[in-house]
């Protein structure tokens, strides 16, 4: 009985020192160790190829909102596309698939082809299977290299931060199909 009481008091004191509520009642300070954040952060580099296939019967990117006709620009302002694109080890679509990029992009400039990219890179291989890296940012299509922020992740990539460098590897102006090389630098626990 005394052992149970001591154990209960220990657990209660641990809980009170781990989580401290503020006066609002809905915000608390949490000891990072309780979330496994006491480990040293790791910086990882991933290189994958993102295949945006708009054409054909097996398209992986589908426009759900067309460009706004009133603006009649070459930038396709207002267009929104949903994606489930393959992430591969090499630039060929036939190379090994290591994940999918699930997300959306919207054309957000009236004067140039600029996209707001919102993507979860969902990995399907090795220790990263089921883990995601979330990338959200501005992509000016005709710049040679673009940088987009990594804003988070899940699984192995909980509390992830970093950035992704995107470089167009291939673009077919007739079909709109594209392959982009992504070099992702991500801090994670």
UniProtKB/TrEMBL annotation:
Task: List localization entries.
Answer: Secreted, Extracellular space, Apoplast
Tell me where on the tree of life, at the top rank, the source sits. Eukaryota
Keywords per UniProt:
Apoplast, Secreted, Signal
Q: Which biological processes are named by the entry's GO terms?
A: phenylpropanoid biosynthetic process
Q: Which GO terms describe its cellular component?
A: apoplast
Please verify whether the record's keywords include Transmembrane: no
Specify whether Ribosomal protein is a keyword of the entry: no
Its quaternary organisation is: Homodimer.
Q: What does this protein do?
A: Dirigent proteins impart stereoselectivity on the phenoxy radical-coupling reaction, yielding optically active lignans from two molecules of coniferyl alcohol in the biosynthesis of lignans, flavonolignans, and alkaloids and thus plays a central role in plant secondary metabolism.
Q: What does the sequence similarity comment in the record state about its family?
A: Belongs to the plant dirigent protein family.
The record's annotation in PANTHER family points to:
NUCLEOPORIN-RELATED
Name under which the protein is recorded: Dirigent protein
- Which species is the source of this protein? Sphenostylis stenocarpa
